[in-house]
Amino acid sequence: MQNTSTPIAAAGGYPRAVLFDLLTALLDSWTVWNAAAGSEPMGRSWRAEYLRLTYGCGAYVPYEDLVRQAAATVGLPASAPQSLDDRWGELPAWSGATELLRALQPRCKLAVVTNCSRRLGQRAAERLGIDWDVVVTSEEAGFYKPDPRPYRLALERLDVQPGEAAFVAGSGYDMFGTASVGLRTYWHNRVGLARPEGAPLAEVESPTLEGALPWLRTFRPAAC
């Protein structure tokens, strides 16, 4: 759900807006992919192939097509992508995600920037139970992250400059995009992914979201 009301101005040292990766930073999509694949090893293989296709294609190709292509490549039956779609409403939030969002909502604008179709992106965003100011999917932006255009579209809709915003990433690939746009980044690396070769460092990397609120609280001088 997107929030159409006038957001409260940023308080204290918080940024004016915080943008989030959705399917890895806030939601545990790994569990759902593994269940749809029938096992964790097959789910990981399928997800890795999907990510390779996504980060390689740039301009938007229907998300569901990439999911099906990746499933076929790793030898999964045609029923696996449909099972993933059927389980989409079961996506669980990582521990600390809803608490972080609720703490931030009175202080900052909140947005999602996700590599997903509009249909599935909206369904996933609703799993967090808050009113988002902006939800940007790759389908709407016309490009997949880490192309800078999805991040820029979110900033444009928020009416916020890159230096006034922060990004909470779920994948090391996001750092290519956030660095190019000028977004300071916290990498919630819950599953211990390796940083992609050549990817810029995040300002903070952590296996949990616990450090995100203290980081955001001191994002800028309180007098700003």
Your description of this structure?
- The protein is an alpha/beta fold.
- Helices cover 41% and strands 12% of the residues.
- The protein contains ten helices and six strands.
- The chain has helices at 29-37, 40-57, 63-73, 79-86, 97-104, 118-126, 138-141, 148-158, 174-181, 212-217, and strands at 17-20, 109-114, 134-137, 165-169, 184-188, 204-206.
- It is globular and about 55 Å long.
- The relative contact order is 0.19.
- The model is unreliable at 4-10 (pLDDT under 50).
What are its keywords?
12% strand; six-stranded parallel sheet; 224 residues; 10 helices; globular; alpha/beta
Would you kindly provide a brief summary of this structure?
Pfam families: Hydrolase. With 224 residues, the chain is of the alpha/beta class.
SSE blueprint and pairings:
Layout: E1 17-20, H1 29-37, H2 40-57, H3 63-73, H4 79-86, H5 97-104, E2 109-114, H6 118-126, E3 134-137, H7 138-141, H8 148-158, E4 165-169, H9 174-181, E5 184-188, E6 204-206, H10 212-217
Parallel strand pairs: 1-2, 1-4, 2-3, 4-5, 5-6
Helix pairs in contact: 1-2, 1-4, 2-3
**How much helical structure, as a percent, in the residues?**
40-55%
Strand content: 5-15%
Counted beta strands:
6
Give the topology string: H per helix, E per strand. Answer: EHHHHHEHEHHEHEEH
What is the C-alpha radius of gyration, as a whole number of Å?
17 Å
Strand order, largest beta sheet: 3-2-1-4-5-6
Q: Counting H and I runs of at least 4 residues, what is the number of helices?
A: 10
Poorly predicted runs are 4-10
Main sheet, how many strands, which sense, barrel?
6 strands, parallel
Shape label: globular
